[in-house]
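INFO batch 0412 | record 1 of 1 | parsing
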Amino acid sequence: MKSKYYIIEESALPEIFEKVLKAKELLETGEAKTVAQAAESVNLSRSAFYKYRDLIQPLINFKTESVVTFHVTLHDRPGVLSKLLSVFQESGTNILTINQSIPLNGTALVTISVMMGDSDTGPENLIDKMEQSEGVIKVDFMAG
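INFO prediction complete | emitting tokens
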């Protein structure tokens, strides 16, 4: 039988599913070292954890947690990338990946993927701030 998937609001979930998700989070972040510790800290039996752990996963809220990838051409000078990255830190975005090419002819291409999260700054504002950052030649982006 083929699995079916549904998107439902968290408040409609039985409490056990919320506990399973919290226990999984504790394990992923290292706050709990074992399933027994994670289950105990959320008042859940280990058997319930094992029964439901593969059946429930958090869904990224794409309204507030969209992934955006920026392609930035930089001058190859010390500190340019560092100043660029400070733009993301100041905006409250979460950097997921950074890839930089080997500099050629005094420039380097950097690809940065970020989770926008609860940032009040949209991609367009980030582009404006990046373009104002010293050493940035060009900024392009794509959502998703």
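INFO post-check: DSSP finds five helices and four strands in the chain.
INFO record closed
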